[in-house]
Specification:
Layout lengths: L1 E5 L2 E9 L7 E7 L39 E3 L13 E4 L12 E7 L6 H4 L12 E2 L2 E2 L3 E6 L11 H4 L18
Length: 179
């Protein structure tokens, strides 16, 4: 078997001999469609951060809240706000871009029944556990939360900041370039 990619589509190429007498090769191609292989094996893509560029604060109207969950709706993974600390409902396509160091997956809501172990956040509604916005059902959502990114601050001296501007024999500034 050989995996062949042609114009962005993946095909499985199976070669077999039809008969012993004519030894003809017959090729059959099966379209793999939009297939993803998810694994818990470590790989490079798992550690790539999703570049966040949108802001929640000042753009709250772009991120409606769910009627039955304390979370905001994010329509596209690329629109995840960089400044929001609470729960977010993102499309299931998020899984393909997921970095466990950047986000925590809390659960998923897609059916009318609520199970806290599956959904991962408290249910605030009466009956229908599917994510609702203004009473309307949305697509299935994965609930995520940004992980606290720790920034390590290091105390440095003025000498380190202006490295190259000090003469090793003196404690003063030798000079700066420019006017």
């Amino acid at each position: 078997m050989i995996m062949v990619e042609q114009n962005g589509l993946k095909f499985l190429n199976i070669m077999k001999i039809q008969t012993e007498t004519d030894k003809m090769l017959m090729e059959k191609y099966f379209s793999m469609g939009s297939v993803f292989w998810f694994t818990n094996l470590d790989n490079r893509k798992r550690h790539e951060d999703i570049i966040l560029y949108k802001n929640y604060y000042g753009n709250e109207s772009e991120y409606p809240t769910y009627d039955n969950y304390d979370a905001i709706n994010v329509d596209k993974t690329k629109d995840i706000p960089m400044d929001y600390k609470g729960f977010m409902g993102v499309p299931i396509t998020f899984v393909d871009k997921y970095n466990p160091e950047q986000f925590e997956i809390l659960g998923m809501a897609s059916s009318a029944g609520y199970n806290e172990e599956v959904v991962g956040i408290p249910f605030l509604g009466d009956k229908d556990a599917r994510p609702l916005i203004n009473g309307k059902n949305t697509f299935a959502r994965i609930f995520i939360k940004k992980r606290n990114m720790k920034i390590e601050l290091k105390e440095i001296s003025i000498r380190e900041v202006s490295k190259g501007y000090f003469n090793d024999n003196e404690e003063g500034v030798v000079g700066f370039g420019g006017n």
